[in-house]
Every structure is written in structure tokens, then in C-alpha cells.
Design brief:
The protein is an alpha+beta fold. Strands 1, 2, 3, 8, 9, 10, 13, 19 and 20 form a nine-stranded mixed sheet that branches. It has a seven-stranded mixed sheet with strand order 6-5-15-16-17-14-18. It has a two-stranded antiparallel ribbon with strand order 4-7. Strand 11 and strand 12 form a beta hairpin. Helix 1 runs parallel beside helix 4 and helix 1 runs parallel beside helix 8. The protein is globular, with a radius of gyration of 23 Å.
Length: 567
């Protein structure tokens, strides 16, 4: 029986993530600019702003003794960073014009690439490389490594980077964002402070840059508080990724379409895989699937395991060893899902928080870096002009530079692509070449798409091969490889509808979750098919997928979650 996840909302109100400053003086940190999120966007902002202030001491003085603070919830910068990643280095070159490409932490430029359509679990067709998949000149890199490197550059320029720090509330006063409040560190499951617990701290800033990534709690709070919307809702995809040590060097990057995803429209399965060389003896392999899928039994983790058994992939991994595993959601709504305001009084949206991802090209990292640079330039320009940078409209130049520059231009050209695949792979795939050839000028108007949670889910009978422990693995052993260090006795950071949900929705959450967080309580099913859910939140790798399918992820205690090293 079909079920709509949005009909079973979680006990969560984004308005509760907004408050006024209230901490005593000894728990306040005055800052010039507070950047929430130590990813590529936030760190690029910190680096660029540090560079600009180094040559402008008058503006630097206006930001006070602590001009730049970066808040990072991971154990260290890079711990929660997960991406393909095949990156256009141009924004990095612009950020560091004195460096050569070999000075950046990459595995080198792409020389060869191929695209394959998998027709079954044993067969495939090699395709001409579509324009969207061309990566010549882009560089393979580890996003975790890049962000660690960027953090070092930011700190050398005077930024204070605070890892293990979760931002729980957005502080708003007199119609302006004035900073953030961190969570209390050291609570038990009931939310009671344990001995030695660290109190919440308020970072009070002239500008707060929201660089939390997809599904950020403060992003949602800010949009609610300032009545910010977008033409259409943001939609998401779930990516599951593994890093392998291999015996044979991979001499090209590979993308696949088709199997193990099903092409018929009723399944709404859109996505594909990548295999990237990460040096001479490692490869990154991952699968991304849009979270608007229809099948309550679909599991992206298990689909990736199936994919590795295809001869094309297995030949690459033959004799290899799995080193790391991770999962993360990606914003896929594109141009029409961007907030209609990218700047607020005292705040800016950058990177994935603003939805800057080009889905057809599988690119988001260089847009994140570019947006961080543009945010820093807008802040500095307002300071240098003598403006009150907390005032309404003071940072409006950031909106203009995004929408009229590379980010807005690129996303506008592909503004109607992702929506076509909500009609199925076959029909969607027939329209996309026309959009590509016309650079988005084909007269489709603003093509609508539907919130992931508003799509019905039903059991459509996905089946998976049992893990063999050599090439394919279960979820729990994969979570171990993520380095997850979440305390078993900390409060639950996941919100789902209580006390019961339809079995189809419960199965959706169970199968969707790559970390085996959810399970149906044995014997709990009632006559109307409603069941109770038990959660193991300490398994969570903070992918965020639950929010797209009717629940809500909120930031757990700082320092918890995965500890990616080379992802």
C-alpha cells in the first residue's frame, strides 16, 4: 500500500533553533565573522577573508580581536567531508595565484575517461562521453585531505578553527543574525548534564556564514526566521562511497549509468556511479541515487555492493582491499531550489547550504569554493566602504555576484535537467540531450519538481546478494570503516514520527539508512499495519538522508560521527 512520508512529520520545529543571545559574559565569544562549517565553502571564505584583511588593517580592526572563527562539528576538519571528488581547480588557482597545480593536495589531472551503460549484472555498453561527463583537466582529490589543507592555510592567516563544536541555535536580535549558540557537551541520553559537562557557548558575530552543507539545521532556521523561500523545494540524493587499495593502477576515470538501477518510471530511480583513481594504488568507488525513489526496499548501500560484482567493476577491484566507507546526501534541486535570498541581515548562505551543485556534471566542490570566495569579497567590500555590515542589504553584492557569475550561469543552463528524471530514466534521458544542446534554452519554462518526502513509497521488491566479506559487505562492518566514534549514551539527534508509522515508511527508513540505525520493534505491528521503530543513533554517520524521507537529522554532540581520513 503506498505511503507518503510527509504525512508523518517528526516532532521538530525549525523555529526552536532560533533564539536571542542570553549567555553570561564568560560564555560569550565576540567575533567578527563566524563561519559555521569547516568544509570547502567555509574554509575558502576564511582563507579569502584572511588574505584581504592582511592587506587592509583598518578593516581588520573593525572585526575585533577575533576576526574569523570557523565552527566545525567533526572531530577534526575533514572528518565529515565526503565527495567523489573530481574537481575543477580554477577557484583554488584564483584563491592561491602563487601556487602551481602540483602544490595543491590532489592526485593529478585526468587524462582519460570512459562512460558505460550497464545493461545487466554482467553486460555493458561503452558510450561516447556525454558533454556533462567530460572531465579533461580536472583533478582527482580527497575532500577530507583538501579541507585539512585549507584549514591550515586559514589558520596561518589568523582564523580560529574550532573542531568538535556543534552549532545548535541561530542567534537573532533586532531583525539581524548576531551569531550562533553551541550545544552542551556531555549530556546523557535523557539530556541531563553528566559530571564535567561543558556548557553551551555563544559566538557573537557581525556576520555569520552558513556553510553547514546539505540539510543544515541553522540554514533551515534562518530561512524560516527571515521568511526565505525558493521557487521549488530542495531535493536530494544519497551517495555511498568506498575507498579501495588495488593491485592494478586505474588509468582513467569511469562513470556508469543503468544497472543496478531500474529505468521504468514507476521506480523513480535516478543516479549513477563513479570510479576514480586516487594515486597509483587506490580507487574511489561510489553510487549516488536520488532520494525521490519509490521503492521502500531500496538500499543505496546494497546497490553499491551489487555494482561491485559487475565484471567491469570487479576487474578493477580484483585482489584489492576496502580501506574506508562513507555516506552523505547531496542537494540536487539546482537553480530553482536556491534560496531567493542568499544574504540576510548579518548572514550569508554558501556551498551546499545554498544548493550550489550541478547535478548533470556531478560537480559541487568548485562552486562551494567559489561561493566562499565571493562571500569573503562581499564582506570585505562592505567593511572597506564603511558600511554597517550587519544592516539590511549590506551584503547584497554577494547575491548579485553569485547569480550573475559562474555559479548562477552554470546552474541556470541545467535548471530543468534533474526534474526530467522524475519521469523515469527513459523519458528523462530523451529530453536531456536537447537541454544540453540548447544550453538550457529549450522552452520548458520553470519545470516543477516535488519534495522527496511527498513522493509515495511502496514495496517494489528490491533484492540483494548476501555479502561475501571480500567484495561485498554488510552495513555494520561498513560503519566500522567510517571511523564512527559516537557515544552510545549521548542524546538521540534523530527525529521521526511517534509513536507508530506505516510499515512501508518504516521499511523505507530501514533500507535507506546506510548505517543500520532503524529497525522495527518485534511484535509491534497493529491491525492497521502501523509499527514502532527502534533507533540506534550511535550508528549514524550523519548522512542526513532521513530528513529527505520524512524524519529530521539534527547535529549531534560535537566530535561525534565519522572520522574520514582520505575520503
Amino acid at each position: 500500500m503506498p505511503t507518503f512520508p510527509n504525512e508523518f512529520p517528526p516532532p521538530y520545529d525549525p523555529a526552536n533553533a532560533v533564539d536571542q543571545p542570553a549567555a553570561p559574559e564568560d560564555l560569550k565569544i565576540p567575533a567578527g565573522v563566524c563561519i559555521v562549517g569547516g568544509g570547502a565553502a567555509g574554509l575558502a571564505c576564511a582563507v579569502k577573508l584572511g588574505q584581504l584583511l592582511a592587506d587592509d588593517l583598518e578593516s581588520l580592526e573593525k572585526l575585533g580581536e577575533v576576526p574569523i572563527v570557523v565552527i566545525e562539528k567533526g572531530k577534526a576538519v575533514g572528518s565529515h567531508s565526503l565527495s567523489g571528488a573530481m574537481v575543477n581547480l580554477q577557484p583554488l588557482r584564483d584563491l592561491f595565484p602563487d601556487l602551481k597545480d602540483e602544490d595543491f593536495p590532489t592526485y593529478g589531472a585526468v587524462d582519460k575517461e570512459s562512460v558505460h551503460f550497464l545493461t545487466s549484472q554482467k553486460r555493458h555498453i561503452k558510450l561516447p562521453t556525454p558533454p556533462e561527463f567530460k572531465n579533461h583537466g580536472n583533478h582527482a582529490l580527497s575532500l577530507a585531505t583538501l579541507n585539512k589543507w585549507l584549514a591550515e592555510q586559514a589558520e596561518a592567516l589568523g582564523a580560529y578553527v574550532l573542531p568538535e563544536t556543534d552549532a545548535q541555535q541561530l542567534l537573532v536580535e533586532d531583525g539581524r543574525v548576531v551569531g550562533i549558540r553551541t550545544g552542551i557537551k556531555g549530556l546523557d541520553k535523557e539530556g541531563v548534564e553528566k559530571p564535567g559537562a561543558a556548557p553551551a557557548t555563544e559566538v557573537l558575530a557581525q556576520v555569520t556564514v552558513l556553510a553547514e552543507g546539505a540539510q543544515g539545521k541553522l540554514r533551515e532556521a534562518a530561512m524560516t526566521a527571515f521568511d526565505v523561500s525558493s521557487p521549488y523545494p530542495q531535493i536530494y540524493a544519497l551517495g555511498v562511497k568506498e575507498l579501495w587499495k588495488v593491485e592494478k593502477p586505474l588509468d582513467r576515470i569511469i562513470h556508469t549509468l543503468g544497472w543496478p538501477l531500474r529505468g521504468a518510471g514507476r521506480y523513480r530511480e535516478f543516479g549513477g556511479s563513479w570510479i576514480y583513481p586516487m594515486g597509483p594504488d587506490q580507487v574511489s568507488i561510489g553510487l549516488v541515487v536520488g532520494l525521490d525513489w519509490a521503492d521502500s526496499s531500496l538500499s543505496v548501500h546494497d546497490l553499491l555492493q551489487e555494482l561491485k560484482l559487475h565484471p567491469l567493476v570487479r576487474n578493477i577491484l580484483e585482489g584489492g582491499e576496502r580501506l574506508e566507507w562513507g555516506a552523505k546526501i547531496i542537494p540536487e534541486g539546482g537553480y530553482y531550489a536556491m534560496p531567493d535570498q542568499l544574504s540576510l541581515p548579518g548572514a550569508l548562505f554558501v556551498g551546499d547550504s545554498a544548493g550550489f551543485v550541478n547535478v548533470p556534471r556531478l560537480k559541487g566542490v568548485h562552486y562551494a569554493i567559489r561561493s566562499g570566495i565571493l562571500a569573503a569579497q562581499a564582506i570585505h567590500a562592505a567593511l572597506r566602504a564603511g558600511h554597517d555590515i550587519t544592516a539590511h542589504g549590506a551584503l547584497a553584492a554577494y547575491d548579485s555576484s553569485v547569480r550573475n557569475g559562474e555559479i548562477g550561469k552554470d546552474l541556470y543552463e541545467v535548471r530543468n535537467m534533474r526534474q526530467q528524471f522524475q519521469k523515469g530514466l527513459v523519458l528523462g534521458g530523451s529530453i536531456v540531450p536537447l537541454i544540453t544542446a540548447s544550453k538550457g534554452k529549450i522552452p520548458l519554462g520553470a519545470t516543477a519538481f516535488t519534495d522527496d518526502a511527498k513522493h509515495e513509497v511502496e514495496h517494489l521488491n528490491s533484492r540483494y546478494t548476501a555479502p561475501d566479506g571480500t567484495y561485498t559487505f554488510d552495513k555494520l562492518s561498513s560503519v566500522f570503516l567510517s571511523g564512527n566514534k559516537t557515544r552510545d549514551d549521548q542524546p538521540n539527534h534523530l527525529r521521526i514520527h511517534e509513536p507508530r508509522v506505516p510499515r512501508e515508511l518504516a521499511e523505507t527508513w530501514i533500507n535507506m539508512c546506510p548505517a543500520q540505525v532503524y529497525e522495527i520493534v518485534e511484535g509491534s505491528e497493529s491491525r492497521d499495519g502501523m509499527v514502532r521503530i527502534h533507533m540506534d543513533p550511535s550508528n549514524c554517520v550523519q548522512c542526513g538522508a532521513i530528513t529527505a524521507k520524512g524524519g529530521r537529522f539534527t547535529p549531534p554532540e560535537g566530535g561525534s560521527g565519522p572520522e574520514y581520513q582520505k575520503m
